[in-house]
Design a protein that fits this description.
The protein is an alpha+beta fold. Helices cover 21% and strands 49% of the residues. The chain has one domain: Nuclear Transport Factor 2, Chain: A, CATH 3.10.450.50. The protein has a six-stranded mixed beta sheet with strand order 2-1-6-5-4-3. InterPro entries: NTF2-like_dom_sf (IPR032710), SnoaL-like (IPR037401).
């Protein structure tokens, strides 16, 4: 399977290419992030940019363990590391618009549950 848009998005974030990551998002993207500290929602590329710039984590990586695509919907499961230490696992999904941009994004992150073991 060819690499998903979602996988390319996370790689851009991890490589600190924030502008490239944001360019993959529809200007009116709707998103929700279910995190241990609470749920964050937004309705624009600018909202996502504000969230990303406020994370304050210099060495975060999203390691893809599984990904799939069904038409205009993509799913990805992986683990997050900060400074090389695994901090949790995430499950995310996106819907792509006709233009190929991410129009809707949802992610859950948990520090304890492991759905799929590392390969």
């Amino acid at each position: 399977m060819a690499e998903t848009t979602l996988s390319r998005y996370y790689r851009a974030l991890d490589e600190d290419r924030i502008d490239d990551a944001l360019a993959m998002l529809d200007p009116e993207i709707r998103f929700v992030m279910v995190l241990p500290a609470g749920t964050r929602r937004g309705e624009s590329r600018a909202d996502m940019g504000t969230y990303i710039s406020g994370r304050g984590v210099p060495d975060r990586r999203h390691l893809v363990l599984r990904e799939s695509r069904d038409g205009d919907v993509e799913f990805l499961y992986g683990k997050v590391t900060d400074g090389g230490v695994t901090t949790g696992r995430f499950l995310s999904g996106v819907r792509l618009g006709a233009d190929g941009l991410i129009a809707s994004y949802e992610v859950t992150f948990d520090t304890e549950h492991v759905l799929v073991e590392d390969r």
